[in-house]
Amino acid sequence: MNQLQTGNKGLSFDAFQQQGVMANQVASREAEEVKMAIFLAKQFPRNQFEAENRIKESCKRVSLASTAVYNYKRGSTKVEGPSIRLAEVLAQNWGNLHYGIKELESKNGESTMMAYCWDMETNVRQEKIFTVRHVRDTRQGKQKLDQERDIYETNASSASRRLRACILGVIPGDVVDMAVQQCNMTLSGQSDTPLKD
Predict the structure, then answer these.
(1) Which residues contact 110 (CB under 8 A, 6 or more apart)?
(2) Who has greater pLDDT, 108 or 10?
(3) Cβ-Cβ contacts under 8 Å for 16 (sequence gap 6 or more)
(4) DSSP-assigned beta bridge partners for residue 114
């Protein structure tokens, strides 16, 4: 008597109600976390001079500098730009940013994902919603993925490129250029060792 059919699953009415309560609690908690992050960002605004110095110091590490720029050939041209590793360091040192990746839905052999970066201080937000098919391109053609780990890795790889774009869309371009230049100086031996090293 207390059965409610939802899609292909048979849930009791109590279990169905409990799912709704839990979803509301999660949404409420996330809303409170966002309010608190905005409040803290306004109370403790970034010092851009200090943030840039932290970024420069991080870019003096050879381990970061060697992975800071991606490059590959596309036809006869060379494509290059700041990598996700550099974007993460920029976000961590710039401060007052909320960024990440979420899987919104997974069904019918594809995942709907969201990458985002939100400057809590200035209320500038970049968000990208995209679909990742659960397939891998091989020389023999497309290979369907059915292992959870393969699907996770494909989703993460696709999402990291969108996350990089979101972070670089929020942080000022001249700060990004300064970081890339410092990484190039580090790799060419024209940079001091980081103070912490």
Answers:
(1) 131, 132, 133, 134
(2) 108
(3) 4, 6
(4) 102, 129
pLDDT at 41: 74
Q: How far apart are CA 150 and CA 136, in angstroms?
A: 9
What are the residues whose beta carbons fall under 8 Å from the beta carbon of 159, sequence distance 6 or more? Answer: 101, 113, 115, 132
Is-above-0.85 flag for pTM?
A: no
What span, in angstroms and rounded, lies between the C-alpha atoms of 169 and 127? 10
- Residues 20-43 have a mean pLDDT of 75
Q: If you search the block for the tokens 């970034």, which residue do you land on? A: 46
Question: CA 145, 147, 150, 152 torsion: positive or negative?
Answer: positive
Alpha-carbon distance of 97 to 38, in angstroms, equals 10
**Average pLDDT of the segment spanning 111-131:** 94
